[in-house]
Design brief:
The complex is a heterotrimer. Chain B is an all-alpha fold. Chain B contains nine helices and no strands. In chain B, helix 1 packs across helix 5, helix 2 packs antiparallel against helix 3 and helix 2 packs parallel to helix 5. Chain C contains five helices and two strands. The two termini of chain C are 24 Å apart. Classes of the chains: A alpha/beta, B mainly alpha, C mainly alpha. Chains A and C meet through helix 6 of A and helix 2 and helix 3 of C.
Chain lengths: 233, 278, 122
């Protein structure tokens, strides 16, 4: 079974009658680093939330390993949302225990190593950490799992170049090799070199899914340049 | 997984209610202790007034514990499930049922503990007051011992018929009350989520709505029940009042349980089928 | 020899160049083990599959060999390293000469210039 995620006829209409996803169809293979690219409001986050079971679709379905989002899918998907989701009163060490207890694929020693590399004390309470540090802790937690699918929602939006390099390095050196990494972003030039494939979405539909190599070869330009051309307004 | 959820929930929440209960106990001791001080006959009005203030403080502390625990857990439920923290809570590999059971059980147990703490604090207050007011000779202590000794005998009198059942009734009422009280909050907050743009307002509205419905249903049931009890007219009779009260308590406990269960299944349905995190 | 990769040319070819340079310059000495695909990919900020492809190419042309147990090593064949070195040098020089031609320099002029500048440097 080489298909990891299947999106069938997926539609999401929000209350104000705004169609965030419009009968979207998509398959995501295993073992790839895939960029989910599209301008703001194109439906990236909506799709990601549905895969993670945080939103219920209006129509259609998402299957992860052939199953709808639920406890089984959540056990093999590691998700980095745009928000920091910690309970601020927790200590870093408690967070590690929390993840170890709930995720069978969590590797606490790996998390400890990465925290030590950043000189983050395990005794520190999360509320004492800066926003940037908290985001790094969250990334470390997410990447310390041996998941089948990593979903990273805008991991590099609004960070400085040093932090961006740290984030990309952390992703590359920690993701499980048979796993797929789905990276959503609207900043393509920064991550283009990391990607195997890209999915362009606009207005809740997939308008292109191809390998980076193919795009470069067929269009004779970088994915970033091609993206600008496709989404020119 | 439910066990793990409960473990982490317990670790995260115990501090606040324990702090509230400590404050309650201290204020019970202080308020009771005022009776040992020679302030009540003071010429200056300030002293008896401050004594009364301390007793009022105890009164407020009782309210604060019950209310405080409710509000603390309501806010925690909202934050944990539907705010940013919900992104972690709702992506744990657990079912909606496990998530919800975890919350209900923890909240109910702490509501119970808060109620018990209030009971204990009242006992502490009166015990200290009694010991402070009675002269320090041995007669009071002797009377107390005698009263305790006479207790089993008193239970045998016909007036005390069905007392055990009555106690059981009260226990059921308290337990189901803690459950349905928690479920009213959880149900209201969960239902409030369906009002996408005004989630907190929706929760408050739903909570008020639930209370109104419960009041109406309750009055519809309690009024005839009250008449029945009054009709019973046992005040001067030698008959025990307990069986009828027991029946009454069990019926109310049963209704409370049904209400709690109804709200539980509604909440579980909403979380598993209608979840929509911002 | 840092990873100054730009997105105008195929990443894979650029990685190949950097790796060749690192071997020629002795950063990865003959017979020495080179870092894992994942570490190199993380260092360069590129897709591990791309890095893998570049290393496979290095293997194919013999600069790198694979031991089943101990990963990839730089070849101990000094001759081959020298050969790669002079090949790269020839490429650079011919590119340079082409550009000088565009500027209108003849062969003698170029040599004269080189000698003069070499003298300045020394």
């Amino acid at each position: 079974m080489n298909v990891l995620v299947e999106v069938n006829n997926l539609t999401k209409v929000y209350e104000k009658k705004k169609m965030a996803l419009n009968h979207m169809n998509l398959t995501i293979p295993r073992g790839k680093i895939i960029g989910l690219l599209g301008p703001n409001g194109s439906g990236k986050t909506t799709l990601i939330k549905i895969i993670n079971g945080l939103l219920v679709p209006t129509e259609g379905e998402v299957l992860v390993n052939g199953r709808k989002p639920g406890p089984e899918s959540k056990a093999c998907v590691s998700y980095l949302p745009e928000r920091t989701y910690f309970q601020n009163s927790m200590q870093v060490s408690e967070l590690i225990n929390f993840f170890s207890d709930f995720y069978a694929d969590f590797r606490p020693e790996r998390a400890r190593q990465m925290l030590a590399n950043l000189n983050i004390s395990e005794d520190a309470r999360l509320k004492t950490l800066s926003k940037g540090t908290k985001e790094k802790v969250q990334l470390i937690m997410v990447m310390s799992r041996e998941a089948q699918l990593y979903i990273l929602d805008e991991p590099i939006a609004g960070v400085d170049p040093a932090a961006r390099d740290y984030i990309l390095r952390t992703i590359i050196s920690n993701y499980n090799e048979n796993a797929t990494v789905l990276l959503s972003t609207h900043l393509i030039s920064d991550i283009e070199k990391v990607l195997d494939e890209v999915i362009f979405i606009r207005d809740g539909r997939v308008i292109l899914q191809d390998t980076v190599e193919n795009i470069r070869e067929c269009k004779g330009k970088s994915v970033d340049a091609y993206f600008r051309e496709v989404f020119a307004c | 997984m439910l066990g793990k959820l409960l473990k982490h929930e317990w670790k995260a929440v115990w501090k606040v209610p324990v702090l509230l209960i400590c404050i309650l106990m201290i204020s019970a001791v202080v308020a009771g202790g005022t009776f040992a001080l020679p302030i009540w006959d003071s010429e200056w009005v300030g002293l008896p007034l401050s004594g009364m203030m301390l007793i009022f403080m105890f009164y407020f502390a009782m309210i604060a514990v019950v209310l405080g625990v409710m509000i603390y857990f309501a806010v925690r439920y909202y934050k944990n499930m539907f705010s940013d923290e919900g992104y972690l809570t709702n992506t744990l590999p657990v079912s909606a049922r496990q998530l919800l059971l975890n919350k209900v059980i923890t909240m109910s147990v702490w509501n119970l503990i808060a109620m018990i703490a209030v009971g204990v604090s009242i006992f502490v207050f009166f015990a200290i007051m009694l010991f402070s007011l009675t002269p320090m000779d041995s007669s009071f202590a002797r009377e107390l011992v005698e009263a305790v000794r006479a207790w089993p005998e008193a239970l045998n009198s016909p007036y005390m018929d069905g007392f055990e059942g009555f106690c059981l009734g009260i226990l059921c009422l308290v337990v189901t009350g803690a459950f349905s009280g928690s479920m009213m909050l959880i149900g209201a907050i969960t239902l409030g989520q369906m009002v996408r743009k005004h989630r907190i307002l929706g929760a408050v509205g739903a909570y008020i709505g639930f209370n109104v419905i419960v009041q109406i249903l309750g009055t519809g049931f309690f009024l005839p029940m009250m008449f029945k009890i009054l009709e019973y007219d046992n005040i001067f009779s030698q008959q025990s009042p307990f069986p009828i009260l027991t029946l009454f308590y069990f019926v109310v406990a049963g209704m409370s349980l049904l209400l709690g269960l109804g709200l539980y299944f509604m909440s579980e349905y909403l979380i598993s089928h209608k979840l929509e995190l911002e | 020899m840092a990873w100054n990769l730009n997105s105008d040319r195929p990443i894979y070819a650029q990685i190949l160049e950097v790796m060749q340079l690192r071997i020629i310059s002795g950063r990865y000495g003959p017979g020495e083990k080179i870092p894992s695909v994942r570490d190199l990919a993380a260092e360069a900020g590129v897709n591990p599959n791309t890095m893998q492809k570049a290393l496979t190419e290095l293997e194919r042309n013999g600069l790198v060999t694979t031991q089943r147990t101990s990963g990839r090593m730089v070849t101990e064949d000094m001759e081959m390293i020298q050969e790669t070195r002079s090949k790269l040098a020839r490429e650079q020089v011919s590119e340079f000469i082409d550009r000088m031609k565009e500027l209108g320099f003849g062969k003698e002029e170029v040599i004269e210039l080189l000698e003069k500048m070499g003298g300045e440097d020394a």
